[in-house]
Amino acid sequence: MTALYSLQGVTKKYGPNTVLNDVSFEIGENEVVGLLGDNGAGKSTLVKIMSGVVQADAGEFTWGGSTIDRMSRETTERLGVETIFQDSALVPFMTITRNIFMGREITNRLGFMKMKQMDAITADVLDSVVTIEGIKSPKQLVASLSGGQAQAVAIARAVHFKRSLLILDEPTSALAVRATEALLAYLTQLKSEGVSSVLVTHNLHHAYQVCDRHIVMNHGRKILDVRREDTSVEELTAAVVEGAEGIRRYREGRH
Amino acid sequence: MATEAITTQRRISDARQSSGLFGRVRHELQFVRGRGALEISVVLIVLLAGYTIAGLVSPEGFAFLNPNNLSGVVSQAVPVLAILGLAAGILMIAGEFDLSLGANITLSAIVFIKTAEGAGLWAAIAAAIVCGMVVALVNGLIVVYTRIPSFIATLGMSFFWMGAGIFLNGTTPATLTSSRDDLMVFLFAQDFGFFRSQLVWLLIIGVLAWFFVHRHRLGNHLFAVGGNPAAAEAISINPKRVKLMSFAIFGGLVGFASILIAVRTSSMQPGGSATEDFTLFAIAAAVVGGTSLMGGRGSVTGIVVGAALIELIRNGLLLAKAPGFYITLFVGVTIVIAAIFNKLMEGKAR
Ligand SMILES: Nc1ncnc2c1ncn2[C@@H]1O[C@H](COP(=O)(O)OP(=O)(O)OP(=O)(O)O)[C@@H](O)[C@H]1O
Ligand SMILES: [Mg+2]
After folding, report:
1. What value of ipTM does the predicted structure carry?
2. Does residue A137 sit in the same domain as residue A171?
3. How far, in Å, CA of B269 to CA of B194, rounded?
């Protein structure tokens, strides 16, 4: 089976710091991949590179078997990749509708926006995956929303525009239990719609619950890449907390 | 697409559900609060009412209602400042400033006058607008590609453009003579009794600007780039391109305003300071109208009302025969109060 999206030898330096060091992995068709690791391990940087917002210093990217010549946000958008960024990437003093359709407005041929249509779709999208209490109107400014409500807007935007791959960088950090459960269930449902996803989270139980495969990052390196059947929450915990040493000790302990 | 599935029970209320016109207006206002256009309009109406009463009580002492005064303020001073305010405001929404506005007016007006004298009216109109745009685009390129704060870059460039005016025309004023014919006056400075050509231009430009800023895709990008450039970029809006576009629009509007100024005054002094006031007054109109100094917020209606408010205060002080420095003083205070007010409104929306 050819992978949907594959990364080979991705390296990224910020000044003298090597934030990503020769990272390679694949995301399969209809697969939910967990991207795990301690704070500062390089997960968000990897997410930004995968979504074309940040350029890697080295690395090769292939999509459905063919090489991507130039990585950029335009390229990934064309491929149907949508990302929920950790810092949510919303504009506070714009309405919910305008945030959701920012850069992808529904317009007539002259470029004027169809506000009513966009408001109606926004109202539907906001209710479709995670239903959050307290959002009164698509015309509300994002600045007036709570942290969780804003996160729901970011989720709704990505969900609405994704076509082949949904990348979620700590999407549940501000969500309450019910909304979190709904989002996790949605990732499983996505597989049946032919959409893969990458989930970055610090909650290993959540990751274990929905991900088919787990990738653990440690100081910019990939230290573990296992299918769910071949691992456990305990091993993932050891890998995230203690790194490669933790994996070794965990595996020795089991023999 | 799953997200377009019909939701049987939509929880997020639609404006249409609110009853009647009043309910709908209130519903809308609930979410646009914090933009400032409404509050500033109330201030303007109160001020207008006060002036009208003062004018009725003492037509001699406070000649506000005198037709000459009315048409001079309402259809001459306000339109020019409002168009310049829109220029500055659109740029501010995108998160930038251009402090060479005054120098741009001088240069574009000189270009207009010289072209009109040499090649006729239509060429002159085009030349002035193109000149304004080129000046602003050069500033924009410097700001966007060097990442120098636009305050500094355009302040520096304003001396350059002032010099360019002298380079073009020497130190003598450029003057409209034979080319200032009936058609030119009709188009840009005609007094029709209770309104002048300038007011018509403001209406046209105001409506176009409103549709562009608040209803066009590119207007939406202005707010996105000014409000959170990183977010805009993450969604594949190119901030550089949007900023350059806003500089170009700024320049086009400044070039056009310079025509209105040139036709009314018939001459322009290269290197002169006559146009310098416009720079800060235009920014003041935008700020008074609720435009954020940090970018990402502002409205066309607010800016036009802001310009009207400033010109009315200026006119009131003039009519009350206040010494010149009072005007500067009052406008200064107005800007600071407006900026504080904007800040408070932003706090309220959070
Ligand atoms: N723009 C940047 N400039 C310089 N250093 C950066 C930049 N972005 C990230 N880094 C550094 O790269 C490293 C990895 O950051 P990254 O955000 O990818 O971590 P993370 O795994 O997402 O952490 P967290 O779980 O806390 O979100 C950190 O040490 C961080 O300081
Ligand atoms: Mg992160």
Report:
1. 0.89
2. no
3. 30
Residues of chain B found within 8 Å of residue A107, distances taken between Cβ atoms: 216-217
* Test the B interface: residue of A78, A79, A94 with most B CBs within 10 Å: A94
Q: Which CATH number belongs to the domain containing residue A34 in this structure?
A: 3.40.50.300
**Minimum-distance ligand 1 atom for the alpha carbon of A220:** 14
A137, B13 in Cβ contact below 8 A? yes
Looking at the structure, tell me whether residues A170 and A69 fall in a common domain.
yes
Domain count, chain A: 2
Backbone Cα Rg of chain B: 22
Residue A203 shares a structural domain with residue A251? yes
Ion ligand 2 contact residues with beta carbon within 5 A: A 44, 86
Kindly give the pairing relationship between strand A32-37 and strand A196-200.
parallel
**Cβ pairs A/B, distance under 8 A:** 135
Regarding whether A147 and A75 lie in a shared domain, the answer is: no
Give CA–CA dist B216/B341, Å, rounded.
28
Structural domain boundaries, residue A108: 89-161
Distance CA B139, CA B146 (A): 11
| A100 in the same domain as A58 | no
**pLDDT digit string (tens) for B263-292?**
999 999 998 778 888 998 999 999 999 898
Is the same domain home to A68 and A93?
no
Q: What is the DSSP secondary structure assignment for residue B74, as one 8-state letter?
A: I
Q: Hey, which residues does A198 pair with through a beta bridge? A: A33, A167
Same domain for A247 and A171: yes
B248 contacts B130 by C-beta, under 8 angstroms: no
**Quick check: is A1 in a domain?**
yes
The residue whose CA has the least distance to atom 13 of ligand 1 is A40
Residue of B nearest to A143 (CA): B350
Contact A124 B237 (CB under 8 A): no
* Domain presence at residue A190: no
Cα–Cα nearest to B188, from B66, B80, B78, B301: B80
Residues A28 and A132 in one domain: no
**CATH code linked to domain B34-349:** 1.10.3470
Domain boundaries, chain B: 1-26, 34-349
Q: How far apart (Å, rounded) are the C-alpha atoms in residues B94 and B101? A: 16
- pLDDT mean by block of 10 residues, chain A; 255 residues: 89 95 95 95 96 94 93 93 90 95 95 96 89 86 91 94 95 90 92 94 94 95 93 92 88 78
CB atoms inside a 10 Å sphere around CB B265? 15
Minimal Cβ distance to A139: which of B7, B31, B350: B31
Query: Which residues have C-beta atoms less than 6 Å from ligand 1?
Result: A 14, 19, 37, 39-45, 86
CA neighbor of A228 nearest in space, from A41, A38, A36: A36
Query: Is A102 within 8 Å of B235 when comparing Cβ atoms?
Result: yes
